Amino acid sequence: MTRYGPMYGPDLTFLGVERCDVNDPASFAGADVVIIGAPFDGGTSHRPGARFGPMALRQACYLPHDGSRPSLALRVDGLKDLRVLDAGDVECYSGDVDGSLAAIEDAVHRIAVTGAVPLILGGDHTVALPDARGTARAHEPGRTSMIHFDAHADTGDIAFGHLHGHGQPMRRLIESGAIRGDRFLQIGLRGYWPEPETLEWMAGQRMRSYEMTEIVHRGLEECLTEAFAIALDECDQIFLSVDIDVCDPGHAPGTGTPEPGGLTARQLLDSVRRICYELPLAGMEVVEVAPPYDHADITAMLGNRVVLEALSAMARRRKDLAGGTRWDPRQPLLDDR
Amino acid sequence: MTRYGPMYGPDLTFLGVERCDVNDPASFAGADVVIIGAPFDGGTSHRPGARFGPMALRQACYLPHDGSRPSLALRVDGLKDLRVLDAGDVECYSGDVDGSLAAIEDAVHRIAVTGAVPLILGGDHTVALPDARGTARAHEPGRTSMIHFDAHADTGDIAFGHLHGHGQPMRRLIESGAIRGDRFLQIGLRGYWPEPETLEWMAGQRMRSYEMTEIVHRGLEECLTEAFAIALDECDQIFLSVDIDVCDPGHAPGTGTPEPGGLTARQLLDSVRRICYELPLAGMEVVEVAPPYDHADITAMLGNRVVLEALSAMARRRKDLAGGTRWDPRQPLLDDR
Amino acid sequence: MTRYGPMYGPDLTFLGVERCDVNDPASFAGADVVIIGAPFDGGTSHRPGARFGPMALRQACYLPHDGSRPSLALRVDGLKDLRVLDAGDVECYSGDVDGSLAAIEDAVHRIAVTGAVPLILGGDHTVALPDARGTARAHEPGRTSMIHFDAHADTGDIAFGHLHGHGQPMRRLIESGAIRGDRFLQIGLRGYWPEPETLEWMAGQRMRSYEMTEIVHRGLEECLTEAFAIALDECDQIFLSVDIDVCDPGHAPGTGTPEPGGLTARQLLDSVRRICYELPLAGMEVVEVAPPYDHADITAMLGNRVVLEALSAMARRRKDLAGGTRWDPRQPLLDDR
Amino acid sequence: MTRYGPMYGPDLTFLGVERCDVNDPASFAGADVVIIGAPFDGGTSHRPGARFGPMALRQACYLPHDGSRPSLALRVDGLKDLRVLDAGDVECYSGDVDGSLAAIEDAVHRIAVTGAVPLILGGDHTVALPDARGTARAHEPGRTSMIHFDAHADTGDIAFGHLHGHGQPMRRLIESGAIRGDRFLQIGLRGYWPEPETLEWMAGQRMRSYEMTEIVHRGLEECLTEAFAIALDECDQIFLSVDIDVCDPGHAPGTGTPEPGGLTARQLLDSVRRICYELPLAGMEVVEVAPPYDHADITAMLGNRVVLEALSAMARRRKDLAGGTRWDPRQPLLDDR
Amino acid sequence: MTRYGPMYGPDLTFLGVERCDVNDPASFAGADVVIIGAPFDGGTSHRPGARFGPMALRQACYLPHDGSRPSLALRVDGLKDLRVLDAGDVECYSGDVDGSLAAIEDAVHRIAVTGAVPLILGGDHTVALPDARGTARAHEPGRTSMIHFDAHADTGDIAFGHLHGHGQPMRRLIESGAIRGDRFLQIGLRGYWPEPETLEWMAGQRMRSYEMTEIVHRGLEECLTEAFAIALDECDQIFLSVDIDVCDPGHAPGTGTPEPGGLTARQLLDSVRRICYELPLAGMEVVEVAPPYDHADITAMLGNRVVLEALSAMARRRKDLAGGTRWDPRQPLLDDR
Amino acid sequence: MTRYGPMYGPDLTFLGVERCDVNDPASFAGADVVIIGAPFDGGTSHRPGARFGPMALRQACYLPHDGSRPSLALRVDGLKDLRVLDAGDVECYSGDVDGSLAAIEDAVHRIAVTGAVPLILGGDHTVALPDARGTARAHEPGRTSMIHFDAHADTGDIAFGHLHGHGQPMRRLIESGAIRGDRFLQIGLRGYWPEPETLEWMAGQRMRSYEMTEIVHRGLEECLTEAFAIALDECDQIFLSVDIDVCDPGHAPGTGTPEPGGLTARQLLDSVRRICYELPLAGMEVVEVAPPYDHADITAMLGNRVVLEALSAMARRRKDLAGGTRWDPRQPLLDDR
């Protein structure tokens, strides 16, 4: 696998963490998390640009790119308390969805089998198939659940004559057996897609999809708590898929298919924090950040913070599990310093 | 009346619904809703551009423009379960407010008298006068109430030496007798306009205006419930006017006179849904979407979804009224599929 | 001090209020509030542009620039019920932080000693040092507390080899003795800065910093109420520092170092209102509005409204203190008109 | 007439020149040039925004707004060597083309009758009718010629059912007798409008229109020289109308109806310089600068420089006429300093 | 083939010309030109977005979309004097370059075999292969020459592991035998690609490439005249490929791989005019207009005018060939009207 | 000296060339050119943002960042045929002009004394003083001439109370004796600054400034040839200073003080090529690229190409001097391949 950075801009790592090479397992031996880019946007049904997502997510931060980010809220440094490496980008030709997906899955799987958490920077959501399958294949079959933040179910069947595209990965994932349909938790859906036939297919798979109306009426926290219980039932770990369009377009304009009425940035960050603190994470992706449609980098910055929030919460989870402690969200910032 | 699409871009219909001709009543016989554009922005006191609102609202959607939009939340298809047609645009010369308003009122009235709901795509808010009057004139006098979402009261008297402009339509409407002042419900007002004299005039008309402070302190749901009761008291139907600037500029930057501190997009969509589900709608307008100031089309997309939310809720209302059922907002998406 | 307006655009005043000259105390005798610009952005660690903040904040309003702004919510006119003047800008050379800070502090102090409230339009947050110190020096030592809205603590020590910059003013303020560390209230912090050593220094100063997690879990209102009690304990007045990046980037994209997950514009406006209504204000600043990164002027408009909200609440506070009345946020807009 | 600055932003003058009041002739007694804004864009057939032209043209300059601009090339100061005043804006309601045109013509005429050159900042090109007629009426009938830079002939007849709009002023001007058709020189036309019938009408009026093809093949200098000869034949002075869209969209994107293939900014500036240096100017307008579509203010800056180039050349013309000297464009900048 | 308009926006035709169906030859019997969109951008090596090129090129015009465009310069109406139809878009999945190219070539060939000129709206330049081959296959082998405007030679061999992409179509074309290498004329090349090995391959094919340095030093007109002679030597017709990035980024910012130092918009328009007036056109494409990177639509407008210039010149060529006349570029616009 | 990349984004080199460390002379032993960034914009009098110039100039290219750029026109690879290294950025605090200039001059001088050509990426034009002085000090006194492309003379005396700023470096340079006034060649000046007193000072220094009017009337080539002769008279090498605002704002919008009427991008590239091919270069800077005001990166791309053009011409000059050959600009691209 070739490093792809030089194509879509310079070769750099996520906020300056150390590099590794996905073809050289020794280079990431002992890593807790390996970040890898999937600069593919050939699967978008509307506005492209997510190919520049990895480049943008890696650098959208005003602080020094020094491989350190101490979280004010969680009191850990996700980039230092964990061993986080960056493997660069998978070479993806957006004109070749099949070849790109194969290359991505291979790379993700190479990471996951070492026990490291693959953290994929998309790219459009087509990459969810290789991301989650490459991860799940490294674990006991049927014991990886999915938590999926998105405005869209992404369970379409055929689009533009193809099985693969950014509206279909979740169907392919379930069909492939990589993820059980009844351990597939979707959060933030809204709008006018998919049509009833697809919803019926989803119901038939016993998926659990929280549309925004239910979230507004029941409360996001209650929905999450319920979802977590399902996710852990007969499963050992989760794959977390964050499509940035789960947020309202006011918070995340730089994306391909924005749908009004979504979560706030605050809600997304808090949800990701809860997931990575309360649940065992096997893999994760942040997708659909499309810089050509962004303004003042606010969508890229949000995506960057989603990654950091996950890493911080994973680090805090490890610390608390080891120490028998528990994080208190109500503790004042300067208390016990 | 000439189709106006070719002037401000190509001739297209709202998400691909069928066309009709406002001068040929047979062409929209049996329609439930007739969409019509009012590309007028000569009445704006500050940033223009709302003339491109109809064009933007019709096409700001990433899904196929196929005349179908099944609502995930409401389980109906507002474009198919209702008969929705698009009559194109009224020819509006922005340099001639009087002529434009007359042409708009005539067109709206032709639609309303057939029993169809006119759904007007503005244009600046000056068009509220012909929109609501053209609608109300088709019904029993004094029995149409108004629910008006806006950052501004739009009850000014004379501006730039004229009676008509985007800050004055609500005064003209009440003066004309088309809408009773005491059945005029305003939601979302804030900021520094109008001045006390105008507020006194409004109080004298017994209008009911919910400023954002009251909404924040009492809760939007409680305010809406109270407003609905007033709206139905001695009235048979409502006209719904949605000025997109009722939303916070973060959610709707593309408008002429943005005022910080407004509703979220989610709140607006949920409110429109409640109105069109719980109340009998006589007519509706979505105004003040100004594409030159929009970013990544997020304001146009929000306006498009306001229209769809209204149509979906109308369809669901009809279905539930017919079947004696009731929509449950807490029902999971995939339940009973 | 030279008027600086002509450098960064035309010479104009905040929404058309009258001018005064900071070197001619007679020109602002009897003023309640004197607005002054600090067009300095040499201290920004990342995106510059805040030098254009004063120009943008003064004019970002679609209403006539006529020196009058009657608040719908508070039923006072902050620009007319108070005597508000605009002293123009302090001449600031962004390449010379030391000289600029000295000039700003001198100007602010000249205003504060007359008993008028200096209201500074930044500029980057470096100016907090001269703004707050110039104000506090005009009052009894140790009796001015600080309420500081920001995503960042701004308590760094040395950056780029210098003591002064937009990440350090709060440390310098406390070190200078102008503001007591234990009367320093910070609201809205989040993200990944500063590092633990600085947090320990802050704890050592007995600062009270409300990170967003605490705010979300306890509620903003409860946090504010608690903070107000601290602010008034052994202090007579407060200095209010509003860094616009306390808001989420969706609401305030036009700033130098945006941090996702912040307050909504509505929350900021309501908070500023409470502070200026419930507490005695000695001085105030609105900083870090960076027009080059703004879209459709929404950040500048928010900053403009923060200023107006403060002025309106001060006017209402004075009125209610004088009349023994109390403002009711639940009162309908048209009630008692 | 009311000053209009406060509506579309703050009240300021062109680069800081002194103010005058068009209703108080004494205030501009002895003026050589009186600048006046015509913030009307109700006549645009496509993208609006030119209402903000006067505000943008007055301030689009990075130098101090100090009422002085020494021209490097012409060695005069157009703002100081001439007496240039700014009368503010005519109150224009874009929804009322008839009223706006009447108000503009009255104001322009008041200026022209004093012998001062009215220099109008548009606004869309609809204002050419009152601008040129208000000017010509102050001079001997039939002895004012027109030099008109534009991508479009603006000689349409009826549009949107009206006689007045930005595509028709030149026909109205000729019909009114204010300008002789055979002394109407158009430079820069191109594209696909107007249709042959209108061209025939133009030919019938014996207008002389230089389409870009002729300009490219013969050379701009030769065309100008030929045009100047016509302009002075039986005429005593000229009115210069500059529609910024005469320039290529690459040089002037911020306009309503950009047409590819136009002049460079350099060519326009040099042409305006020649006209104002070689010919006696009676009046001038710069129109169709539409800030909402501008980028980095480059179109507004170009318009600002067109005004300055005209003033500089007028000043140099006066100086050379008085001194019997002649400007040499090949003289090195520092020669004879 | 499915109409694709509804996917990337509404279904519309080029400036309102009539529709036809590429699968129904009867629908375009007798057509002179058939416009067809190729919304594919999976082959771009850097910035995507050209998939929206067809939609943008069809509507980027401020005049009525009425199927008529009388050219001022050429005195013909390219949309009416020729029979021009629009076949909509070929369904292209950007994730599948092979399938997309096959579908495009089939559609182009169906048009070309009827004798109509296929005029393809790209899409990225990958489509040149099916565009030119689909055209050439309809004519006698080896007798179609190519005139190719571009900043880049597009003669790469393998990129991202694939034969097809926007940097390689010209090599594939020559290899396929569709176009003779020694009748391949390239105009406007510049910059730093391709590398010497590829240039040697090109030289080996006896291609003739005019780099900008040669064009600047010899003059564009002389280069064109020379190229025309080569193009007609042993060939009967030409295919014209216009990559919008042949223009300088100042004139065409909205493209994927802009290269400074290119032609002006005026030069491109004049060149296209000469080609279509002086040479027999077999087919044409306008590619690499990428709306996400455009500003104020100036690149899309330029592309739209390139199409119109070609159509106008073809119409004038036919007229002059029929009448034995010759167009005179120096003739004044209103002469002989 | 600290590498500064991590502050204003990630740490990368110019198009992927190798790194060196300015404090470790061994790291750049044998280098022909050492690139170094000067991210300082505290000296700008108007729009800031040039601090991001080095980051933008290094990466604004769509080709692989592989340290190779074979020039089509010059048939050399400027990055490979010369030994070009990148020393990262000088740590510059924009709030401290004095400290920043000292650090820059030290770094530039360390490079120049080794015989390598320092190539500085600005930053605002304030850095010309340390750039040119640091270079000239490494050579025999009084034998380095200056060729300066700019819209502005940059010979002001005191601004904002300081000697250093982006309008004054050229006066400081001459005063310092680093560059002789009579070997100071300025190209592209225009507009309304500086005032006559400064022009007189310039004339007194016997500077030679080519204002755009002279350039247009005499031709750029003739002016350059004349300037070259002066530059080489009694001097051994030149320093080339390119302020990107020498180009017209249409070609270079992303800059602080754009002045309409400038060179085209093509003219600038060709001029830089001639200079670096015909003259011995001692040092060079590219300044005033301000990304916050850029669109679609076109200004950054132009600046990147200015650097490459210089390097390519230097490489070709060396080759031709060595081989006794001479480059022919009229040679066809594929000739002799």
UniProtKB/TrEMBL annotation, chains A, B, C, D, E, F:
PROSITE patterns: ARGINASE_1, ARGINASE_2. One of its GO terms (molecular function) is agmatinase activity. Mn(2+) binds at H125, D150, H152, D154, D243, D245. Its EC number is 3.5.3.11. Pfam families: Arginase. Keywords: Hydrolase, Manganese, Metal-binding. This is Agmatinase. It comes from Nonomuraea soli.
